[in-house]
Design goal:
Layout: E1 13-14, E2 26-27, H1 37-43
Antiparallel strand pairs: 1-2
């Protein structure tokens, strides 16, 4: 299945400020040997697309010493 019928569960980098809570900006590298997630994001998703997402999850510990700089 492709498009809205398929659920993608892939980690992507959040680029937006943590103060902006009404939307997320993400970075997705297109991988030619992917399982389809990066191809879907590059080929189907456009600026302004609405995606159903889960809450952000960290795959590494955050450096809280720079938290005031965000």
């Amino acid at each position: 299945m492709h498009g809205a019928a398929r659920m993608h569960r892939n980690p992507y980098s959040l680029l937006s400020s943590p103060r902006e809570l009404d939307h997320y900006e993400i970075g997705v590298r297109r991988m030619e040997e992917s399982r389809g997630g990066s191809h879907f994001m590059h080929d189907q998703v456009r600026v302004g697309s609405h995606l159903e997402i889960a809450h952000p999850v960290n795959l590494f510990a955050l450096d809280k010493s720079h938290a005031s700089m965000c």
